[in-house]
Design a protein that fits this description.
Elements (H helix, E strand, L loop, with lengths): L7 E4 L3 H13 L3 E7 L6 H5 L2 E6 L10 H10 L4 E3 L9 H9 L3 E2 L4 H8 L1 H10 L15 H11 L3 E5 L9 E3 L5 H16 L4 E5 L5 E9 L5 E13 L2 E7 L6 H17 L4 E9 L5 E7 L6 H8 L3 H9 L16 E8 L1 E2 L5 E2 L2 E2 L2 E3 L6 E5 L6 E2 L6 E9 L2 H14 L1 E3 L5 H8 L2 H5 L6 H5 L2 H5 L3 H16 L1 H19 L7
Parallel strand pairs: 1-2, 1-4, 2-3, 4-5
Antiparallel strand pairs: 6-7, 6-8, 9-10, 9-12, 10-11, 11-14, 12-13, 14-21, 15-16, 17-20, 18-22, 19-21
Helix pairs in contact: 4-5, 5-6, 12-13, 17-18
Length: 501
């Protein structure tokens, strides 16, 4: 492979991930070009890059998905490469092909490898071919209801209908019986077409109470593949990950070895290069099945970085320059535990409906073992056009409990005013006994969450109240002191303060 040093990168994305990539490029001495839509003109990513260009109006199809315009800006601004981040065009093989056709580096896998592993149906066929087990179902798209009925009868209800060309839960339907099948098939195809411009869907067996665990990999063009361990992503809301952690509490070292070897085999046999994530689903017997491969950087990649100490964006760029990985599997050391909460502008009291508007006040936690990746600041506008992600709050500790308690404390220090948000919801999850014990699956939120939970006093507050009550019983004289203090406080409240009355 011909080595070519990259001097300038266009980032075909926005928000948190664009900021994240700009920072790594800056450390590497690589110039950056950002693109922004009309509503993102004042966004951090547009200001932070060395150069910024308007790519079009607010709707993504007219701006961040405008392939020709993005490539035109990259060429006019003298870029060598395009980094797609995640979402938008990051898993679009035709875009990757167009980029290379225009003599630019696509920082990601080749278009051919992306087409093979990014398409869920072809990836399932490939996994079978090399002996990695998949969830029972089809390996090609389902078009007609009669075939769907035959397949469902064969593998048994409940089943899942899933989009072949996308993710994030869009186009996905759980079908519990034959009566739901025809309407579910039509709805999934329609939603997939709208979300990914690809209406193909396929069927697989729905696994009850599963655990979702994935493996981060890096591969160069010389056949070297390393894995960076697993991330557990089972805390999901409408099939969308909310909290992730590494390592998983569900598997032991024997299963971990089998899992990571399966991921490495898939990547190596596919001739895949750059960063990727191989996703698996575990049943209640801890048997795992290949689910899909994300042919890009993942939202949750920071929790892997916190444990291994490698900057995955830098490694992506070095691989795209034609370099070999300068480390091997034995050099990768795993340390401690890490956890990520996705902070969204959404309303947990209203079925997580996105909240839009201006951030009036934003105070994010900091300190030992705390990282916050974000692309917004005070006065930033959260528009209805894009994902309402505010930031990714990540904590790291020597043990899972240290990491969890650090996250719990950090969430309490996270202040966001101006928009409905899910900070209290994340606090509720991280303080739930089932989460604390690690006994959860992808149905955690459906099983345990109701809006009334958010209004309950926390266990910590209840414990403080109990301790205070016991103290009063054991030391009645303290009550007099406290009464005095209360009265004093009441008197203070009644005093006039100059300028305030």
């Amino acid at each position: 492979m011909i080595k070519r040093s990259i001097k300038k990168i266009l980032i075909s994305n926005r928000g948190e991930i664009a900021v994240r990539i700009i920072k790594s490029c800056s450390e590497m001495g690589i110039k950056t070009v950002s693109i922004y839509s009309d509503v993102d003109v004042y966004a951090i990513h547009a200001r932070l890059a060395d150069e910024s260009y308007c790519v079009g109006p607010a709707p993504a199809r007219d701006s961040y998905l405008n392939q020709d315009k993005i490539i035109e800006i990259a060429k006019l601004s003298g870029c060598d490469a395009i980094h797609p981040g995640y979402g938008f065009l990051s898993e679009n093989s035709s875009f990757a092909h167009k980029v290379t056709e225009n003599n630019l580096k696509f920082i990601g896998p080749s278009a051919a490898a992306m087409k093979l592993m990014g398409d869920k149906t072809s990836a399932r066929s490939f996994a079978i071919k090399i002996g990695v087990q998949i969830v029972p179902g089809t390996t090609d798209p389902i078009d007609d209801i009669s075939r769907a009925i035959r397949v469902a009868d064969e593998i048994g209800y409940p089943i899942l209908i899933k989009a072949a060309g996308g993710g994030g839960g869009k186009g996905m339907r759980i079908i519990k019986n034959a009566n739901e099948l025809e309407a579910g098939l039509k709805a999934s195809k329609s939603e997939a077409l709208s979300a990914f411009s690809d209406g193909r869907v396929f069927i697989e067996k729905y696994i009850e109470n599963p655990r979702h665990i994935e493996v981060q990999v890096l591969a160069d063009a010389y056949g070297n593949v390393v894995h960076f361990g697993e991330r557990e992503c089972s805390i999901q809301r409408r099939h969308q990950k909310i909290i992730e952690e590494s390592p998983s509490t569900y598997i032991n070292e024997t299963i971990r070895t089998e899992l990571t070897q399966a991921a490495v085999s898939l990547v190596k046999e596919a001739g895949y290069t750059n960063a990727g994530t191989v996703e698996f689903i575990f049943d209640q017997n801890k048997k795992f099945y290949f689910l899909e491969m994300n042919t890009r950087l993942q939202v949750e990649h920071p929790i892997t970085e916190m444990r291994i100490g490698y900057d995955l964006v830098k490694e992506q760029i070095k691989i795209s320059e034609g370099n070999r990985l300068d480390f091997s599997q034995k050099d990768v050391k795993f340390d401690g535990h890490s956890m990520e909460c996705r902070i969204y502008a959404e309303d947990p009291y209203n079925n997580f409906f996105p909240s839009t508007g201006k951030i009036i006040h934003l105070q994010v936690p900091s300190g030992l073992g705390i990282r916050d990746d974000r692309g917004v600041e005070e006065r930033s506008e959260i528009s209805p056009y894009y994902d309402p992600l505010i930031s990714k709050l990540i904590t790291f500790g020597k043990t899972r409990e240290e990491t969890r308690s650090r996250m719990s404390a950090a969430l309490k220090q996270y202040h966001l005013i101006g928009l409905r948000n899910n900070i209290n919801f994340c606090s509720w999850i991280t303080s739930h006994p089932k989460f604390i014990s690690g006994e959860y699956d992808t149905g955690f939120i459906e099983k345990y969450f109701s809006v009334e939970e958010l209004d309950k006093p926390s266990e910590e507050l209840v414990n403080v109240a109990i301790i205070a009550a016991i103290g009063r019983i054991q030391n009645p004289s303290q009550n007099e002191i406290e009464k005095g203090a209360v009265n004093s406080f009441s008197n203070w409240k009644n005093k006039k303060i100059d300028g305030f009355n």
